[in-house]
Design brief:
With 344 residues, the chain is an alpha/beta fold. 34% of the residues lie in helices and 25% in strands. The protein has twelve helices and 15 strands. α4 packs parallel to α5 and α9 packs across α11. It binds nicotinamide-adenine-dinucleotide (NAD). Nicotinamide-adenine-dinucleotide binds next to α1.
């Protein structure tokens, strides 16, 4: 923070589980002030203040409209159920606020493109909370790809598995009206972004199958993805895992191979990276510590850093997610150009 800079006044819209994680970083950032807590659930507002007693004098509101009128925050963190994101981001931009939106940015291509356009028109920072873009392990992989160390990517396999079905039974996550979808729309959104971010190529077509496992939303899905440059990808999402977590990415280039493997016992730590190059195996150690989405977002608002996951990340994930659902529904391969008419 530069001397003489005014505090950034941030409102939290949605004060459930992930908002507590964000707020516990946010309130410690010098020059940042949490000025409002919004949630229709008094229980969750109380839980937030119990979690961070320093917020006990912050005004609370049951809805965002009322809060925007009364407080006029500079910036808003949106941590609400998925299908509310578009409405809440649009409201924030209309009130002149910067936005950190939890994933997914929006549940449809149209809504994601609308947000991207509004962010461009207003000049406000809109960031999607894809924390893997800040993870040291994934950044090692991204840098190795960008610097050409593994040549051209031939195939990439992404595996995202959690005991999601068991953990979300009876919650909004299994209600399509609030979630917009199941495991793919929720945790799968992170790995869809990883796939698109690492390859940096437009998707051409998608063929997918989905299994709802006797719930109203997708639990398992497998997708075969072709990129316009010929790169092939396999994206496996399993929400019915008998253990807690598996996250793996295997990238086979023409000159080398990169692998990311999470530790199921410590899924929040950066994964183990294996890099094979010229017949040798490199295991990068002492990777830099994790930097939070909240810090990256505040730095972007202050013009002190790039927005690591701008709205276009949300548009691309919405395109891929929509194509996966559409392919599973129709039994046909789907061309991205058919579902995203505005195009890239
Ligand atoms: N980045 C990550 O790793 C990560 C982890 C968990 C959740 N998330 C995302 O965070 C978001 C919230 O998930 P969560 O786990 O905190 O869920 P949650 O159910 O714990 O919290 C959601 C909160 O939104 C509130 N809410 C509902 N309608 C609202 C409205 N109209 N206005 C304001 N608040 C409203 C609910 O009362 C609840 O307190 C989702 O987008 C989810 O995908 C991201």
């Amino acid at each position: 923070m530069q001397e003489g800079q005014a505090n950034i006044r941030v409102a939290m819209v949605g004060c459930g589980a992930v908002a507590r994680w964000h707020a516990s970083t946010l309130y410690r950032i010098p020059g940042v002030e949490i000025v409002a807590l919004v949630d229709p659930s008094q229980e969750n507002l109380n839980a937030m203040v119990k979690w961070i007693p320093q917020l006990s004098n912050v005004p609370t509101f049951s809805g965002p409209e009322e809060m925007f009128k009364a407080i006029g925050p500079d910036a808003v963190e949106i941590c609400t159920p998925h299908t509310l994101h578009h409405e809440h981001v649009v409201m924030a931009l209309e009130h002149g606020a910067h936005v950190l939106c939890e994933k997914p940015l929006a549940c449809s291509v149209e809504h994601a493109q609308d947000i991207k356009q509004r962010a461009q028109d207003t000049g406000k920072v809109v960031m999607v909370s894809y924390q893997r873009r800040l993870d040291p392990g994934y950044n090692y992989i991204k840098n190795a790809i960008t610097s050409g160390e593994i040549g051209d990517i031939q195939t990439i396999s992404v595996i995202c598995c959690q005991a999601w079905k068991k953990g979300t039974t009876g919650t909004w996550r299994q209600n399509p009206e609030l979630s917009g979808g199941g495991m793919l729309m929720d945790s799968g959104s992170h790995l869809a972004d990883v796939l698109l971010w690492l390859t940096s190529q437009p998707v051409e077509s998608v063929y997918a199958t989905v299994d709802n496992c006797d719930t109203p939303v997708d639990i398992n899905s497998t997708s075969t993805i072709k990129f316009t440059n010929g790169t092939q990808a396999q994206f496996t999402v399993n929400g019915n895992l008998p253990i807690t977590w598996i996250e793996e990415v295997l990238i086979i280039g023409t000159e080398g191979i990169l692998k990311y493997e999470s530790d199921p016992q410590h899924p929040w730590r950066t994964g183990r990276i294996t890099h094979s190059k010229d017949g040798n195996l490199i295991q990068p150690l002492r990777l830099q510590m994790y930097s939070s989405p909240d810090e990256a977002w505040i730095a972007a608002i202050r013009g002190e850093g790039e927005n690591p996951s701008p709205p276009d990340a949300g548009v691309r994930v919405a395109e891929l997610t929509t194509a996966i659902y559409e392919s599973a529904r129709t039994g046909q391969a789907i061309k991205i150009s058919d579902i995203s008419p505005v195009g890239r």
